[in-house]
Amino acid sequence: MKFTVNRQQFIKKLNDVSRAISTKTTIPILTGLKLVVTDREIIFTGSDTDISIETTLRGDDDATELTVEEPGQIVLSARFFSEIVKRLPEATMTITVKEGFQANITSGAAAFTINGLDANGYPHLPEIDGTDEVNLAGDVFRDIINTTVIAVSNQESRPILTGVHFTLNGDQFMAVATDSHRLSQRKVTLPEAAAETHDVIIPGKSLVELSRMINEDSQDVKMRLSENQVLFMLGDTAFYSRLLEGNYPDTSRLIPSESETTMEIPAPSLLSAIERASLLSHESRNNVVKLTLKANEHLATIFGNSPDVGAVEENLSVVTLAGNDLEISFNPDYLKDALRSFGQSQIKLSFTSALRPFTLVPSEDGDNFIQLITPVRTF
Questions:
Q1: What's the predicted TM-score (pTM) here?
Q2: Which domain holds residue 197?
């Protein structure tokens, strides 16, 4: 095997597949990067069994400056190989593999030799037998991930809650996540209806890595499902993830259908106030912020305090405030995560009582995006 390639173009592909490679795997060969070189392209593969990523660097793209003298394949230590490639002195590099699975890497005056492994021992990628495909604009799908993955659980005691629950029915695509303290739900209407209905749970960790790969220039993301795997296609890159097994809890019953008190406020201004209040609440053992609402006086006040440090009190500039007076306490970190997902929009908060979950929705499109937070009992 022997080829010469533009180093920066090679590094872009290397960074993509490195997201799926872990040093903690119990299968030694999976700590490596698989390279398959054909006459016209290089195929990169990385996997940790939960996530697998395969991407292609094509020779017909002039920017890659790819010239292949001899095709072949090898698995190289991802950690050492990546560090070497990123530190080479010239714009191009040449990799040569002789018998015995040793790779010679040269660029300018620098020359490295590292040991590799036989690529035939590398596990095969999952086979996706489903033909039903969902197409979503890259920026929309990234937004769906980023606004729901904040609510997945980090506790392995309930593995099912460490994923995001996706359902597909006709042209309705819905994502929901909860850790039992908060919930985030997002609905999107697809351009065309899917042929089949789907109900899958994708690990939150997989989705975080996937969202990092969807950049501003990304075209549509294609999603294909099989019984225990999902495949996302992003241009020349294939991203595989295992699915979580089990039944996701029925989250629809957690969302209140009516409220006693409502408040509308720009998300950025409420976020700023919560950030200020949490400066002190973080120093307290229970990390709680209190919100009092007095509808008749059109007054909403945030309180945060730490017995050791001090207290903060701030009146909010609300757009509307209606219903019963209320005093409610909550974890400010949960509310900050929720508020960030709304960006610059104005939001509506709906409260039922001091001990019942409250909801946040955009003022204009409240049916398709909802965040829910469970309050904290302080007495």
A1: 0.91
A2: 133-242
